[in-house]
Hints:
The protein is an alpha+beta fold. The chain has a single domain (about 5-85), classed as Histidine kinase-like ATPase, C-terminal domain (Heat Shock Protein 90, 2-Layer Sandwich). It has helices at about 20-25, 40-50, 80-85, and strands at about 5-10, 55-60, 65-75. Strand 2 and strand 3 form a beta hairpin. Helix 1 (about 20-25) packs parallel to helix 2. About 10% of the residues are buried. InterPro entries: 2C_sensor_his_kinase, HATPase_C_sf, HATPase_dom, His_kinase_dom.
Amino acid sequence: MQQANELTLTVADDGPGIPPEERELLEGDREITQLRHASGLGLWLVNWVVTQAGGRLTFHDNEPRGTVVTLAIPRADAESVRSASDEPATGD
Length: 92
């Protein structure tokens, strides 16, 4: 369920789907070497980036076939955006 203070993006496909045991790996902090499908690395990386931003990914079956993935990240308030844009850029 979408909250007013978050941005959501939902993507659905009609492929073979993601097995429940791999969904658990994607949603957890386990080693990525446990994933069996090549596409799982991309989803694991997206999940890592989203959780670092304070968000979450959720997975549901897309009947009759496939997966629905919802990405939810917190919205930044205007003051946070202004404050971040005032900070000097740093580089190596």
